[in-house]
Amino acid sequence: MAEKKKVAQRSIAENRRAKFDYEIIETLEAGLVLQGSEVKSLRTGKANIADSYASDEGGALYLINGYIPEYTQAGRENHETRRPRKLLLHAREIKRLSLSIQRDGLTLVPLRLYFNDRGIAKLQLALGKGKKRHDKRETQKERDWGRQKQRLLRERG
Questions:
Q1: Residues with Cβ < 8 Å from 11, sequence gap 6 or more?
Q2: In this structure, is the dihedral angle defined by the CA atoms of residues 42, 57, 51 and 139, taken in order, positive or negative?
Q3: How far is Cα 53 from Cα 51, in angstroms, rounded to an integer?
Q4: In angstroms, how far is the first alpha carbon of the chain from the final one?
Q5: pTM of structure
Q6: Backbone CA torsion sign across 54, 57, 60, 62
Q7: Which residues of 60-97 are buried (b: 16+ CB within 10 A; e: fewer)?
């Protein structure tokens, strides 16, 4: 039996601000409905999902405000840079996420856009609750204290 080698996932874009602004409750992986020029453009690695979010529209989830730049070699067959992109999830997952968005006031935030080991573009989504200003300060204090502890351990160890 031949062992399969684990190929690292190639990250395209990250939303680093999401973990600071939201308390992450759950993460999940979703596929994206993309045009050919969008996939080619993603391979250059210049996409941006920092200001984007996922929304329920007509029983399907869409990535809103995600930026994928135009692919220069596509010519007139190019795509819109900020068009809503449909997310591919099971119907049960869509229904569950839609209910949590409406009932609990949670937000679906994209954390990372990447190519999986088969070369397919995937989006890591998080179900999150928005943090208040004092929660953000608390998070910052914890991070600073963690860094300070590491520094002290390095100096003494």
A1: 112, 113, 114
A2: negative
A3: 7
A4: 45
A5: 0.76
A6: negative
A7: bbbbbebebeebeeeeeebbeeeebbebebeeeebeeb
Rounded (10°) CA dihedral 90, 105, 134, 151: -10
Q: How many residues does the chain have?
A: 157
**Cβ atoms within 10 Å of 12's Cβ, excluding its own:** 22
What span, in angstroms and rounded, lies between the C-alpha atoms of 136 and 139? Answer: 5
> Domains in the chain, please, with CATH?
10-131 (2.40.280.10)
Q: Which of 117, 120, 114, 127 is nearest to 13 (CA)?
A: 114
pLDDT in tens, the chain (157 residues): 555 555 567 888 888 888 888 888 999 999 999 888 888 888 888 888 888 888 888 889 999 998 888 888 877 878 888 889 999 999 999 999 988 888 888 889 999 999 998 989 999 999 988 878 777 788 888 889 999 989 988 888 6
